Amino acid sequence: MNPERLHCGLGLRRGLLDALCELQTDSIGFLELAPENWISVGGKRARALDQLRAHYPINCHGLSLSIGGPEPLDTLYLRRLRDFLDRMETPLYSDHLSFCSDDGQLYDLLPLPFTEEAVRHVANRVGQVQDALQRRIALENVSYYAAPFQAMPEIDFIAAVLREADCDLLLDVNNIYVNSVNHGYDAATFLRALPAERVRGLHIAGHFVEAPDLIIDTHGADVIDPVWDLLEQAYTHCGLQPTLLERDFNFPSLPALLQEVDRMARCQQTFLAQDARAQRA
């Protein structure tokens, strides 16, 4: 394993599976997958996952926990999830600070009201999940296009949830940028206000510009320069963290994706060099 790539990750999508299995270089340090899409997989894909697991650590980033949802938590899913996470020996499990079910899956990650009641609700459910999984979890700050109710600023809501739930943060840099454009705040200021001690991983991704004041978080395009700049600021704020490139569709070739991973690695090496100089000063 290339030590300079230990913190550089790529999302494991089925469209990339064959190419990743054929990859002959240590261009990436870890993979991340959505456990819901792999828990019941067998046959060729299961064998491919085992092959990749033998070479890369596997982080897991869920889509259906619905940590803020009104319905009771799915205890059967949590038991299956715990078995899968144990089998993968995953270093990090995360899901979204949102909800996606109400009497069935809604197939979207919907925002929560920014209220004290929602903080307590999520914190209680995080406790249940961490007990069921026997591990700490991380919650991702999500992109959203309208909020149900905002009794407090988004940044205060996120900080209150992390503190009350005593869980970690999966910091999605692209989501900060998307929300900053859509809701008219400064992305760098928002980033610096997040509790750095809670951050356990970072995500970057591309998006679609619908209008000058409306960006859609698609994970279907290249990462843009302002998001790369914000990633560099994230390292300054919370230190070097495992960082994942998310790409869910419109896949370029794997070499093209790895060029973005190369840029991620350069950002990390620049931060480490600057940090080393600061330590010597």
Describe it.
- With 281 residues, this protein is α/β, with parallel strands linked by helices.
- The chain has one domain: TIM Barrel.
- The protein is 43% helix and 18% strand.
- It contains nine helices and twelve strands.
- It has an eight-stranded parallel barrel.
- Helix 8 packs parallel to helix 9.
- The longest helix has 27 residues.
- It is globular.
- The relative contact order is 0.13.
- The model has no long low-confidence stretch (mean pLDDT 94).
In short, what is this structure?
The chain is α/β, with parallel strands linked by helices. The protein has helices spanning 17-22, 43-53, 75-88, 116-133, 154-165, 173-183, 187-193, 225-238, 254-280; strands spanning 8-11, 30-33, 58-61, 93-96, 99-101, 105-110, 138-140, 168-172, 199-205, 208-211, 214-216, 243-246.
